[in-house]
């Protein structure tokens, strides 16, 4: 679709319904496609990206120029850039997804029932996935490849500031799909930058089976509120590390330092450190020195501030995802108080205990109701690649359908398969 | 809560928020309860029912009297009745659920990652389940027992016409929970018959994790439309049986007869029969005679009516769940037309093929996108008990979270469990 056609997108509702109908129809084709055909498409898309590097960069330049002219923040402009290394990463991502096992069609738990019927479950695509994301154009390839491999049709809505880049990427997608003999409507990008298109996308249950928003909390909250379609959503990542009195303090030191300082702007970074009062005096000064060296601002409760230099932590601090070199610290009386604090303030993303005590470790993993619970490991491991999913479409902080890092399996469902030999109910 | 207290339920919003807070708190207690404690509660509830038979029947008499006075249809009054056999069935149901394996805490797929961390998944309760149902009071025990065993707190909203029966059953639930040392707020019934209570229940995501409506399509559509909480919903059951040209016609006869006439008012009954034109002349007259004997009204397309006596099937017939001794019949040119028809009209509940052809059977189970797909078996098998789930909270026609018959597992989620030895991300 070129700019001339775009100008004709006057009726957003009709335009989106058309994409929806296309996607629903294409979902049958991609669901029926063999693993080999899907992989062929993925590799052909990679080739198309490789063969169109000059166009991709040139189209991205248009977006970058517009972004600068519109006074977009430098960090946003940086996220928008498609560099040769960005294209390399997209190509590598496609090849990795092609190499992953196909989740679809796997039949499990097949067993005979006393009536003689044989019952099992078959993994199947969800149908049509709508993905809404912000400026980074490489998400277009990421999202498209995961949907394609999991047998779903996709409707992608990138940021309006990356429309030219996304259109160039979409051309490569179409080329690759064609090589594999698949309809180009298996992956469609929304060509209008009209914001009403998002409103339509999330309110067409007849055409769209699930929405995956990728972006800031504001975006995700808005979409969840208005969606008439299930949403795989990721809200806050307020992660805790609890250093138990029976912790190996060297492990505790490594984990507490890594969980906070390995990267700051990520959802699986620790935001609050809980320390058992029996070991606080031993571990906190050592940690405080290390954090100071990294430039991490500390905010502590009264007991913490009696041991190390820290600003006062307010009620708000316990409920804040800093995404920055800031850490709140609380000294607790033991496991019970730690679990109570986590239950109250955790965003149910990832929480960890450091302990050598078997019973306390078991209690922590049982009683802490978060999508990832860890013993003696850094919260930074909460990630689809680290968990071996091979790829990640997002991290769900919901409990329904998919929880924690969501890979290909999260974009599928299971249906029941029943085999008989003329069996009837008596 | 007695009638006096009920009269005080003037502020439904506050009353429901109170139930919600209680449930959220109780969900921690029940999630932490051992399998033994949960089973003890289930068996103690069974004992309480057994010990309170006279009260149960007496309270039910009040509901029956009111129902008759209000001119409720006899079928509805019948569903409302708590007879000695109803109590026996409730007791037996509780014992069966106690005997089922506990889904919670099961850790699966535990494996080492190259980094050295060990990653797996643990099955956990959803938290708080809200169940909305119509007149049958035994659903109160059904629903409560499944929620309890799966480690969830429950808020139950039965029909206003069964309020006295439900209150008597709730007293037995409270007694059983007490015996097991569990808070009685693990299962709460909504004591007000104010319809606004349902509106509140489905709009408290902070207190309720999932809603399971059990009842007519109207109820489920209303709830799905307004819910701010995920809904495990079951809409139509427009089920198909396709008799392929390579079918064993004796099996086809048995299955087509059973799927339609075993029971009429159930969601897994066949509503449309599709027959390959190559075998239609052989099988349809034989089937028509059998249906006539059972008093089933036939509605057919032109080709069908050329072979057997039937009324004319309209476009509306293909899209109708009769739940009655009515069957629409269509003669098709082969598997492709059958799959096309099913794709267009099926409610994605259950569809079956009768064939001896291996390739067509494989195509049917792969390409038909329904929650149950069957080969050479009656659609009537689509049922939690028949599938070996041990119990069934409902049949989901959604694809997200739970699909098809939903047992204990459908009331749970999985969290990630990570074990390390001081591991950090590098």
Automatic annotation (TrEMBL), chains A, B:
Keywords, ordered alphabetically? Amino-acid biosynthesis, Cytoplasm, NADP, Oxidoreductase, Proline biosynthesis
By sequence similarity, the record places it as follows: Belongs to the gamma-glutamyl phosphate reductase family.
Q: Which domain of life is it from?
A: Bacteria
Question: What reaction(s) does this enzyme catalyze?
Answer: L-glutamate 5-semialdehyde + phosphate + NADP(+) = L-glutamyl 5-phosphate + NADPH + H(+)
Q: What is its EC number?
A: 1.2.1.41
Give the enzyme class. oxidoreductase
- UniProt protein name: Gamma-glutamyl phosphate reductase
Residues forming the Aldehyde dehydrogenase domain are 20-304, 318-383
PANTHER family, sorted: DELTA-1-PYRROLINE-5-CARBOXYLATE SYNTHASE, GLUTAMATE SEMIALDEHYDE DEHYDROGENASE
Q: What does this protein do?
A: Catalyzes the NADPH-dependent reduction of L-glutamate 5-phosphate into L-glutamate 5-semialdehyde and phosphate. The product spontaneously undergoes cyclization to form 1-pyrroline-5-carboxylate.
According to its UniProt record, where is this protein located?
A: Cytoplasm
| Involved pathway(s) | Amino-acid biosynthesis; L-proline biosynthesis; L-glutamate 5-semialdehyde from L-glutamate: step 2/2
Instruction: Please tell me where this protein is predominantly located.
Output: cytoplasm
């Amino acid at each position: 679709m070129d700019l001339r056609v775009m100008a004709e997108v006057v009726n957003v509702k009709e335009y989106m319904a058309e994409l929806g109908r296309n996607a629903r129809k294409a979902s049958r084709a991609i669901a029926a496609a063999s693993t080999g055909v899907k992989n062929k498409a993925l590799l052909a898309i990679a080739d198309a990206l490789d063969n169109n590097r000059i166009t991709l960069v040139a189209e991205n330049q248009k977006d970058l120029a517009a972004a600068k002219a519109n006074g977009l923040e430098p960090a946003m402009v940086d996220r928008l850039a498609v560099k040769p290394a960005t294209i390399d990463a997209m190509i590598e991502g496609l090849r990795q997804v092609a190499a992953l096992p196909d989740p679809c069609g796997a039949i499990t738990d097949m067993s005979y029932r006393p009536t003689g019927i044989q019952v099992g479950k078959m993994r199947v695509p969800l149908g049509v996935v709508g993905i809404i994301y912000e400026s980074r154009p490489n998400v277009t390839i990421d999202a498209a490849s995961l949907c394609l491999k999991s047998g779903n049709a996709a409707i992608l809505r990138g940021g309006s500031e990356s429309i030219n880049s996304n259109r160039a990427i979409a051309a490569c997608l179409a080329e690759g799909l064609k090589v594999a003999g698949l309809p180009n409507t298996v992956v469609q990008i929304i060509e209008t930058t009209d914001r009403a298109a998002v409103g339509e996308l999330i309110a067409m249950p007849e055409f769209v089976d699930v929405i995956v928003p990728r972006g800031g909390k504001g975006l995700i909250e808005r979409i969840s509120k208005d969606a008439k379609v299930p949403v795989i959503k990721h809200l806050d990542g307020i992660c805790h590390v609890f250093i138990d009195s029976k912790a190996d303090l060297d492990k505790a030191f490594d984990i507490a330092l890594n969980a906070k300082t390995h990267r700051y702007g990520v959802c699986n970074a620790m935001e609050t450190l809980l320390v058992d009062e029996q070991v606080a005096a031993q571990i906190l000064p050592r940690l405080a020195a290390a954090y100071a060296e990294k430039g991490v601002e500390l905010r502590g409760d009264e007991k913490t501030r009696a041991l190390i230099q820290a600003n006062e932590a307010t009620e708000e601090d316990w409920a804040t995802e800093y995404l920055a070199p800031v850490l709140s610290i609380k000294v607790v009386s033991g496991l019970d108080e730690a679990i109570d604090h986590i239950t109250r303030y955790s965003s149910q993303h990832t929480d960890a205990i450091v302990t050598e005590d078997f019973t306390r470790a078991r209690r922590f993993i049982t009683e802490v109701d978060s999508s990832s619970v860890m013993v003696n490991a850094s919260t930074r491991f909460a990630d689809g690649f680290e968990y071996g999913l091979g790829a990640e479409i997002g991290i769900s902080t919901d409990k329904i359908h998919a929880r924690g890092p969501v890979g290909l399996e999260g974009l599928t469902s299971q249906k029941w398969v029943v085999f008989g030999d003329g069996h009837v109910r008596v």
